[in-house]
Amino acid sequence: MPTQPSATRPTAELDARYSSAQNPRPGAEDVTATQWTEALRQLDEAEIFWASTVRPGGRLHVTPVIAAWCQGVLYFSTGPGEQKARNLAHDGHCALTTGRNSLTEGLDLVIEGTAAQVTDPAVLEQVIEAHETKYGPHITAPEGTFHGMGDLVRKGDVMVFALAPATAYGFGRDDGVYTHTRWSF
Questions:
Q1: Could you tell me if 56 and 48 are in contact, meaning their C-beta atoms sit under 8 angstroms apart?
Q2: Radius of gyration of the chain (CA)
Q3: Is the pTM of this model over 0.85?
Q4: What is the tens place of the pLDDT at every residue in 12-65?
Q5: Distance between CA atoms of residues 31 and 173, nearest Å
Q6: For 38-72, what is the HEC assignment?
Q7: How far apart are CA 137 and CA 121, in angstroms?
């Protein structure tokens, strides 16, 4: 199972070229890199992520998924016949993104790495629990959109992938104050 390379937090670097540090606005004089703890909070709160994978011919494939952060790894799932599963079988490079559709507020996150299929039953149980805790009735209630997902994972009808971040980016917007943070792991 992929894990975070170390127990320490990633290093954060503000990229002034794309932040308000380059083009200061009132209130942006002291712009700093976004802390990883804030990124983790956003990952925990985000309901929808966009998975970007690479087709065998090199074209990109982007699709929405649900995902849960657990023990330093972002987990998502897909059916074995779905395009993203076929893409990941060919090339594990992947990015999961989430954020807001606003020019003036929010934090967009991009987590890049190599996705690996998870087959260890103990890890799968942890991932199922993380998803059930995060998404609640969407997974646990009979009328939930993803009800029964845990059983499908246990039977192997749904594949689970782990994306341990190699690099992550945060694009923050706070009433016209912009930050571009890169986290290195």
A1: no
A2: 17
A3: yes
A4: 999 877 777 666 666 666 788 999 999 999 999 999 999 999 999 999 999 999
A5: 11
A6: HHHHHHHHCCCEEEEEECCCCCEEEEEECEEEECC
A7: 23
